Every structure is written in structure tokens, then in C-alpha cells.
UniProtKB/TrEMBL annotation:
<dbReference type="Pfam" id="PF08448">
    <property type="entry name" value="PAS_4"/>
</dbReference>
<dbReference type="InterPro" id="IPR011006">
    <property type="entry name" value="CheY-like_superfamily"/>
</dbReference>
<dbReference type="InterPro" id="IPR043128">
    <property type="entry name" value="Rev_trsase/Diguanyl_cyclase"/>
</dbReference>
<protein>
    <recommendedName>
        <fullName>Diguanylate cyclase</fullName>
    </recommendedName>
</protein>
<keyword id="KW-0418">Kinase</keyword>
<feature type="domain" description="Response regulatory">
    <location>
        <begin position="22"/>
        <end position="135"/>
    </location>
</feature>
<feature type="domain" description="PAS">
    <location>
        <begin position="254"/>
        <end position="310"/>
    </location>
</feature>
<dbReference type="GO" id="GO:0000160">
    <property type="term" value="P:phosphorelay signal transduction system"/>
</dbReference>
<keyword id="KW-0808">Transferase</keyword>
<dbReference type="InterPro" id="IPR000160">
    <property type="entry name" value="GGDEF_dom"/>
</dbReference>
<dbReference type="InterPro" id="IPR052155">
    <property type="entry name" value="Biofilm_reg_signaling"/>
</dbReference>
<dbReference type="InterPro" id="IPR000014">
    <property type="entry name" value="PAS"/>
</dbReference>
<dbReference type="Pfam" id="PF13426">
    <property type="entry name" value="PAS_9"/>
</dbReference>
<dbReference type="InterPro" id="IPR001789">
    <property type="entry name" value="Sig_transdc_resp-reg_receiver"/>
</dbReference>
<dbReference type="Pfam" id="PF00990">
    <property type="entry name" value="GGDEF"/>
</dbReference>
<dbReference type="Pfam" id="PF13185">
    <property type="entry name" value="GAF_2"/>
</dbReference>
<keyword id="KW-0597">Phosphoprotein</keyword>
Length: 986
């Protein structure tokens, strides 16, 4: 007989249900197996049997297909029936076959998972079938019970709350995993729960459990396990005992405690606390639900005044709109707010507040409220504003701003200390004391003072308060101008009283020279009759002392500027004043439509006269020429001396151009027709006059002067007289004049372009950016070297528009590079001539804003001549640094290289000139190497970054890196190329 014997069932009568019973018979005796099949066929049911003779075959068969029941012999050739059960774990009914007296085996089989057993010697057909069917039904019921129990345990085990079942003696019947965790029990707790958790079965909680059992009513309480969580306990009595639920409420209790602490903090906090609803953020805004006492003290609003209303009632006319917009944007995005803003108290007093607002979420994470902490920083803001105003005043004085600007700033500074009082500044000029500035003067008495004739005091005849202060040099404090013993300037009392002003405090601004009268006075007005408080008087005296220094400096600068605006030899306006007049005339002509001509006049053969008769004769001749020009031309014409023998003219006219030119030629002939008497000699002198017209030949001063200069050269070549600027003819002129004319048109014809030489970080050779270098591609002459056209642009004044174009174009290109490489920087060279332009800082700011660039990515390179020759260079450089741009001293070491420049001016870097690299071999003992190393040490000690240009060999690059250089530039690493050829990293 084989290990696996399959028997095909014979047809049998169907049972009542017509169901086929599938039986797996595991029996090594062929005779016994046949007997079992025979008995089952006699039982009058449809049976399908499969016979296997070994335990291994039974295990394999049960893994392939499950029968309804297994009839399993205990003794098998390879293993016992118990071992088959242990290995196969059949998911079906099992009936064990045993012999007489094998009851112990039967018990073991039942414990191992069998549903029943039969004794081989007592088998009968109906009995065997009944035993098998009963085993199948028993297995089904056990399975269903097991599934039901598993589902119940899974359901109870999945809930977060703990669940206990106790009998009436409080013995443990059941607990779920959550309860075991909350009660900190072992994995297999025993029924005597009191031994494991004695804290539950003593004291008040034991009484609660007994009361629930005795009264049959639900109970609830809170309980805390030793060193464990706080538990919310609910007890449900039933016939069999108690069902107890446990919930961890530790976080809730902590939250409640935290809220109690927060409420205590909010109530007793020194800062104002406001709690409002989360929405609506737009429209009228969220409603206030709570304010603390500090809020009431700070704003004057009691809780009943503001609860239910929006916090926006604190805003007022001076609340910064930009700050309010930022706050609203943060609220809309549910992000914290940290701002300083000006609010208003209930009585209208402005308050500066540091505002901190955070959203507060509920347990679900949904924001329900805003909590705002407000701190009064009015004193801090006022102190900062006073300090800032003082700094601004000192900077204004250093920059040579007009005295009116300084007086206005001083009035604003005084008002910061005196609040809403009206502050006025009066300046003395000879015997007249004139109102020159006022702050917070929105009253008719001050606004109309000039129209009423009381804004000026004649110190020779006036006996009023201001005149008294000037004469006595002492303050005069009037607590009430209605007092009869007080003498005021004519008409002042009536005007002041009509505007509700009563107190008047006047302090002198003393001169540093004891023999001179005061420079002026400050007068403060109050709506209330009162004396100044000691702090107010001290602040006024302190600020009038500062005013003395600033006003004296400003007046001295004004006198110096007045002297500097006129030529000392001829008495004519000099170049600076002429340019100011020309700018004003161009602005005026743009509005009125008045025609304007700009003339440049040069004396013919003046050098011969100067060399033959001497410089004193030349000076005398120039003075006489100036006098004749003044007397020959109209009073409305402006005559100025540019320098040497050059004179400039501003000639407004309304006639036809041809008529105007004829008139100018006649005036010129008349002026130079009569000989000049110089050192008892008669000198016949002629002149050449070049004329340019606005707006045909230009709309700005430099352009028109350049055109007039070209026209003057043309007049000289034709023998003198008058010549009009002709762009077409000028383009054909050879030499300097022709090139200058072409340069004049280079910008408008797009002939200029920028090339970029890369800059690399020393050591890593990482690309840092580029230096922008201007190139001129002439349509006829090809590429013109910068050394040829840059000096030409400097001398002609064209460097200003060219410099502005270079800066804007470099920023435009850098903005394109920043899309992929935001770390790059660009260096731009500034000409010394550009520093004479008062709009330099504004043009840099506009270039940065136009291309949305941070100032830190632009490096402005300047030469030592700027620091040496431009008087206001330091002020301009500091204003540029305020924009964030970096400043590099170019060609360091080629000039004086004064260390005071590095210490005084706000430089961030310096560039070692290429000439220092000549002879560098890398030998640290060599003279060039020692010089470079010393410069590196000096620059780094001053926190300056060092760029080395002109690197052409690998030895030079290695040496610079060895001695600590920061940035490398030179042909070794990259030549200047157009932007489209510039290498950018991937």
C-alpha cells in the first residue's frame, strides 16, 4: 500500500440535506481504512473520502485542500496523531481514533485541538457518521465563538479609553490594553487587582466603587496613579459587578492649569494684553473679548469701552499705512505679528506701541483667537527719533545744506521734547530778524504772519520780546501774553490771541563771538498760559546751544559758497554758478517755451598776449573783456567765466534764429571793435563764439556746453566770429573735436557696450562675479581703446551720462544672471567727475530699484583722486554705503595710498594694482612679494577684502592665494568678454 492512497467514493444514498461530507482518513492499516469507508457508506449519506497512510502525507493534504473532517489514527508510522495536530493545525473538525483504555490519549487530543474521539472497537455506521457530523458542528460553533471573541477583544483593544470588568467582590474579570497601560500593569495581570494597584482599592475611590455597587447608579470621579497620569473614571454598575472606564485627562488638567497661570499672568502683566476673536480679519476686523488692566492704564479704554469692538479704534491719522498693511497680511496668513506702530489713547494722545500678535489654536489645531501683547515704547521711539534727528542735522551741516533746512530740523528736534507746542526759528541778518522756519504751526497766527508783516522785526526800532532777547542775550519767558506789562512786536498780540495762543517763550541763539549779537532766536508758543517746566526749559537751552554751532557753520559755509560762486578776477559768475543758472533757465524754458542759446566764447591769440606781456597783463585784459561783455549784452543775459580765456553765456531769445544770430554777431563786433588799453598799450583782440540751442542740440547743461565747445572750435577754424553747432559738420571734423562729437552721439546710437571680466574666489576658484568694463565700437574706426575715449568723456562732461548708462546696464545684466545665479556680484567703476554730480546717490538707488537688486551685490570702484579732490566725498560715500553697496578703492598703491583714507572713509575692499605683480615669482623673500604681503595684512587688519588684478601666470595666482588674497582677476582666469560670451557655471 502506498503512502498516499486516494479512494474514489461509491455512489450512496443522499441525506436529507443532500450535502456531501468530505472526510480525510489518516490510517496506516488498509483494512481499517476500508472498514471506516464501508461504515460511512452504510450510513445512507453522500460521503467523499480520501485516505493517507502517514502523518507527513496528512500534513501535506491538509495544506492543499481542507476536508470537512479528519478521522485521525493516533499511531502512525512516522509520527503520532498529536504530532500531526501540532504541525498541521488543521482549520477543520478532527476526530481522533483510539483503542480501548486510551482515555488519556483522548484527553490529550482534545486539548490539542480535536473535537472528539472514537474507540476503534466500538464503531458502528450510524454512530460514526453521527460522531463526525457532531464534530463538524462543534468545530463550526467553536470557530464562530472564537471569531466573535476576537472581534470583541479587537474592538475593546482599539479604543483609547481603558476598560475594566470587575465582579461584585471587585475581582478582575477583564481589562483591555489601554487599561493595562493606564494602570501600569504587567502583560498578564492576575485577578487580584487590589494587590497590583492598592491605590485604587483604598480611600475615597474604594468608597465610590462600593457606593456604585450598593446604589446601582453610575458614578464618576478623577483619580491619579502614583507617578502616573490623571484619570477620568466612570463606573457603571450591573448585575455581575462593575464596568469601569478610564480616560487620560492629564493634558486637559495641564491645559487648565496653564490657562489659570496665563490668566494670572495676563491680569497682572505690566504689558497690555488684548484677546480678540480670530475672524473676520478683513472688513471691520475681529472683535475684542478680553483686555487686562495694563491695557486700560495705557490707552484709557476700560473693558466695557472696547470689548465687542475692533482693536482698530486704536488707530489714527498717523498710524503707518505700510505697517497696517503688513499686519493685515500676517493676519490673513495666520502668522505672528511683530511690529512697532503709532496708536492713539482714548483722549487722542499718540502712543508708540510694540505690537506682538499670535494666533491661538484649539485642540483640533483650528485658530480661534488672536492674543496681542502691547508694550508702550513711546519714550524709546522719541529718544531714537531725537538721536536720529540730531544725526541728520549734523550730516546736513557737514553736507553744507542751506541754513533754512537746519532751522527746520532744529524746530522738529525741539518739538520732539516739547510735544504739541508750536516752535518757530528766527534768524538775524544785520538789523532784521526774520521768521525762517516753524513746526506744528497749523494756526493762522503763524501761517499768515508773513502776509500781515509781522514775520520780520526791525531791531533798530522794535521794543518787542524778540528784539529784547537779541539786545540782552537773555531768554524772555511770557506765561500769558494778555499781561499788560508785556511788549510784543507790532500786531503780534492780536494775531496770537485770535489763534488761541497765550504763552510765549523766547531764547537767544548766541554767537561764539562775545562781541557779536545773537544769531537769532527760537520762540515757542503754547495754547495754555503757563511757564515751561524745568525739563522743557533745559531741553530748549540744550538745543539752542546746538543751534549756535550748526547755524554759525551754515552761515560761514554760505559766505564761502557765495565767494566760491564768483570769479575773483572778473567778478563774473564762475562755472559752478553758471551751471546752476543754466539748469534753472532750462527748467524755466521747458515750462514757458522760451528759446535759449548757450554760448562759449574764447579769445583769439590770448596765449600770445599772455606770454609776451606777462600774466598780469593777461589778467588785466580778461577783466576789461568781462566789463565789456557785461555792458554789451542785455541784463537778462548771463555772462560767466569758465577759466582761462573762456567765457560762457546764457542768451534767452524769442525772435527767429537767424535774427537772433545776426544780433549776437553785431554785439560781438561792437564789444571787440574798440582796442583795449593794457599797460599803456593798445591791444586789438577778437573772439570766437560757439552757440548751441536748446532743445535742438540738447536739454541738459553738459550736453549743450559740449555742443557749444564744438561750435567754438569751428568758429576758430574759420577765423573767429560766431558759429552754430552743426552735428553733421562736426561729425566730419578730424581729430579730437570729431571724436568728441562722435562720442556725444555714441549713447543714442547704441555704440557703447559692456564687457565683463570674471572675478574668482582665491583658493576655490569659485566664480564670484565680474567687473563691468565700457567699450566703444565706433562705426568707422572700430573698437576704440578706453584709454582714448574715457579721458575725452571726462574732459567734455560726457562721463556723466555714460557713467549712468554703464551703471544701469551692469545692473540690468546682473539681474538676468541672478535668475540662475543669485550669488553673483558686479563691479562698476565711478569717475571722479561723477562725484561732483549731486544726483549720483539717487541714480545708484534708482538703478538698484529698477532692476530689483540688493545693494550688496554691486561694488562701486573709486580711485584715490576722488578721496583727495572731492570735498564732499566722505558724505557721498556714506550715503552710498547706506544703500548697501560695497565700495572698493581701485589701483591701490599707485598714488599716495594714504592710510587715513582706509580709516576715514567707509570702504569695504581695495584692489591691488597690476603693476605690483611685475616681477612676482612666488619667492616670499622678494621685494614685490613682501610689498603685496604687507598690503594684504594691512587690508585684513582693517576688515577690507582684497582683489588682485592683472594675474597672468599660475605662479602669480598661487602666490596671491598663499598670502591670503581674497579675489583673483586677470587674463590667466578670464578676459573681458561681452555678456553673451561670459561663462556661467551650470
Amino acid at each position: 500500500m502506498t503512502d498516499l492512497q486516494r479512494v474514489t467514493p461509491l455512489p450512496a444514498a443522499s441525506g436529507p440535506a443532500g450535502r456531501t461530507l468530505r472526510i480525510l482518513i489518516v490510517e496506516d492499516s488498509e483494512e481499517d481504512a476500508w472498514t471506516y469507508q464501508h461504515l460511512l457508506r452504510r450510513a445512507a449519506v453522500q460521503v467523499q473520502c480520501e485516505v493517507v497512510v502517514t502523518g507527513a502525507a496528512a500534513v501535506e493534504a491538509l495544506r492543499c485542500e481542507l476536508p470537512d473532517c479528519v478521522l485521525l489514527d493516533f499511531n502512525l508510522p512516522d509520527m503520532t496523531g498529536l504530532e500531526v495536530l501540532a504541525e498541521a493545525r488543521p482549520a477543520c473538525a478532527v476526530v481522533m481514533l483510539t483503542g480501548v483504555g486510551d482515555e488519556q490519549i483522548a484527553v490529550q487530543a482534545m486539548n490539542a485541538g480535536a473535537q472528539d474521539y472514537v474507540v476503534k472497537s466500538s464503531l458502528s455506521a450510524p454512530g460514526l457518521l453521527r460522531d463526525l457530523e457532531r464534530a463538524v458542528e462543534k468545530y463550526r460553533l467553536q470557530r464562530e465563538l472564537t471569531v466573535s471573541r476576537e472581534r470583541m477583544q479587537a474592538a475593546l483593544g482599539s479604543v483609547d479609553d481603558g476598560l475594566l470588568s470587575l465582579d461584585r467582590d471587585l475581582n478582575l474579570l477583564y481589562l483591555n490594553p489601554a487599561a493595562r497601560c493606564l494602570l501600569q500593569l504587567p502583560d498578564a495581570p492576575h485577578a487580584d487587582l487590589g494587590a497590583q494597584t492598592p491605590w485604587m482599592f483604598s480611600g475615597a475611590f474604594l468608597d465610590v466603587m462600593r457606593a456604585a455597587l450598593h446604589g446601582g447608579e453610575r458614578r464618576s470621579t478623577e483619580l491619579r496613579a502614583p507617578q502616573g497620569p490623571w484619570l477620568d473614571v466612570r463606573l457603571y454598575p450591573g448585575p455581575g459587578g462593575l464596568t469601569v472606564t478610564l480616560r487620560d485627562v492629564t493634558q486637559r488638567r495641564q491645559e487648565e492649569e496653564r490657562l489659570r497661570l496665563l490668566e494670572s499672568v495676563a491680569v497682572n502683566a505690566r504689558e497690555a494684553v488684548v484677546i480678540s476673536e480670530a475672524e473676520p480679519v478683513t472688513g471691520e476686523g475681529p472683535r475684542v473679548v478680553y483686555v487686562n488692566e495694563a491695557f486700560t492704564r495705557m490707552t484709557g479704554y476700560a473693558p466695557e469701552d472696547i470689548i465687542g469692538r475692533t482693536p482698530r479704534i486704536l488707530q489714527g491719522p498717523a498710524s503707518d499705512r505700510a505697517v497696517l498693511d503688513r499686519i493685515r497680511a500676517n493676519l490673513l496668513s495666520w502668522t505672528p505679528v511683530d511690529e512697532i506702530i503709532q496708536n492713539y489713547s482714548k483722549d487722542g494722545t499718540p502712543i508708540w506701541v510694540h505690537l506682538s500678535i499670535v494666533p491661538v489654536p484649539d485642540a483640533r489645531g483650528w485658530f480661534t483667537h488672536w492674543v496681542s501683547v502691547q508694550r508702550d515704547v513711546t519714550e524709546d521711539v522719541q529718544r531714537e527719533r531725537r538721536d536720529r534727528t540730531r544725526r541728520e542735522l549734523l550730516e546736513m551741516a557737514a553736507a553744507g545744506r542751506p541754513v533754512e533746512d537746519l532751522l527746520d530740523g532744529l524746530c522738529r528736534l525741539i518739538r520732539l521734547d516739547l510735544g504739541n507746542l508750536i516752535v518757530t526759528a528766527w534768524l538775524r541778518d544785520g538789523h532784521l530778524l526774520t521768521l525762517r522756519a516753524s513746526v506744528n504751526s497749523d494756526v493762522d497766527a503763524i501761517r499768515s504772519s508773513e502776509q500781515q508783516g509781522i514775520a520780520q522785526v526791525d531791531l533798530r526800532s522794535d521794543e518787542g520780546v524778540s528784539a529784547t532777547v537779541i539786545r540782552t542775550r537773555q531768554p524772555v519767558i511770557v506765561d500769558d501774553i494778555r499781561s499788560g506789562h508785556v511788549t510784543l512786536h507790532r500786531g503780534a498780540r492780536e494775531a496770537l490771541l485770535a489763534s488761541g495762543l497765550h504763552a510765549m517763550w523766547t531764547l537767544p541763539v548766541l554767537s561764539s563771538r562775545a562781541d557779536e549779537p545773537p544769531l537769532g532766536v527760537f520762540t515757542v508758543f503754547s495754547h495754555e498760559p503757563r511757564m515751561p517746566a524745568p525739563p522743557e526749559l533745559a531741553a530748549l537751552q540744550d538745543l539752542t546751544g546746538l543751534a549756535s554751532l550748526l547755524i554759525e557753520r551754515a552761515l560761514a559755509q554760505t559766505r564761502m559758497q557765495r565767494l566760491a560762486m564768483y570769479d575773483s578776477l572778473t567778478g563774473l559768475p564762475n562755472r559752478a554758478l553758471y551751471l546752476e543758472y543754466l539748469t534753472q533757465a532750462l527748467n524755466r524754458s521747458g515750462h514757458t517755451g522760451e528759446r535759449l542759446a548757450v554760448g562759449l566764447l574764447d579769445l583769439n591769440r590770448f596765449k600770445v598776449i599772455n606770454d609776451t606781456l606777462g600774466h598780469s597783463a593777461g589778467d588785466e585784459l580778461l577783466a576789461q573783456v568781462a566789463q565789456r561783455l557785461r555792458s554789451s549784452f542785455r541784463p537778462s543775459d548771463v555772462i560767466a567765466r569758465m577759466g582761462g580765456d573762456e567765457f560762457t553765456l546764457i542768451l534767452p531769445f524769442s525772435s527767429e534764429k537767424g535774427v537772433f544770430r545776426s544780433g549776437i554777431e553785431q554785439l560781438l563786433n561792437t564789444c571787440f571793435q574798440t582796442p583795449f588799453q593794457v599797460k599803456e598799450q593798445e591791444l586789438f583782440v577778437t573772439a570766437s563764439l560757439g552757440v548751441a540751442f536748446a532743445p535742438e542740440h540738447g536739454t541738459d547743461a553738459e550736453t549743450l556746453l559740449s555742443a557749444a565747445d564744438l561750435a567754438m572750435y569751428r568758429a576758430k577754424r574759420t577765423g573767429g566770429g560766431v558759429a552754430e553747432f552743426d552735428p553733421a559738420a562736426a561729425a566730419l571734423q578730424p581729430g579730437r573735436v570729431s571724436l568728441e562729437t562722435d562720442l556725444y552721439h555714441a549713447l543714442e546710437r547704441n555704440e557703447l557696450e559692456l564687457h565683463y571680466q570674471p572675478l574668482f574666489r582665491a583658493g576655490t576658484r569659485e566664480l564670484l562675479g565680474a567687473e563691468a568694463l565700457c567699450r566703444w565700437r565706433h562705426p568707422r574706426l572700430g573698437m576704440i581703446p578706453p584709454a582714448e575715449f574715457i579721458p575725452l568723456a571726462e574732459n567734455s562732461g560726457l562721463i556723466l551720462p555714460i557713467g549712468a548708462w554703464v551703471l544701469n546696464e551692469a545692473c540690468r545684466q546682473l539681474a538676468q544672471w541672478h535668475v540662475q545665479h543669485p550669488q553673483l556680484q558686479v563691479g562698476v567703476n565711478l569717475s571722479p567727475r561723477q562725484f561732483w554730480n549731486p544726483h549720483l546717490v539717487q541714480s545708484v538707488r534708482e538703478a538698484l530699484e529698477r532692476h530689483a537688486l540688493p545693494g550688496s551685490c554691486v561694488v562701486l570702484e573709486i580711485t584715490e583722486s576722488v578721496l583727495m579732490n572731492v570735498p564732499d566725498a566722505e558724505v557721498t560715500l556714506r550715503r552710498l554705503r547706506d544703500l548697501g553697496v560695497r565700495l572698493s578703492l581701485d589701483d591701490f598703491g599707485t598714488g599716495y595710498s594714504s592710510l587715513s583714507y582706509l580709516n576715514r572713509f567707509p570702504l569695504t575692499a581695495l584692489k591691488i594694482d597690476r603693476s605690483f605683480l611685475n616681477g612676482v615669482t612666488g619667492d616670499l623673500s622678494g621685494t614685490p612679494e613682501k610689498v603685496i604681503q604687507a598690503v594684504m595684512l594691512l587690508a585684513h587688519a582693517l576688515d577690507l577684502q582684497v582683489t588682485t588684478e592683472g594675474i597672468e601666470t599660475s605662479e602669480q595666482a598661487a602666490f596671491i592665494e598663499e598670502v591670503g588674497g581674497d579675489i583673483l582677476q586677470g587674463y590667466l582666469l578670464g578676459r573681458p568678454v561681452p555678456a553673451e560670451q561670459f561663462w556661467l557655471p551650470d
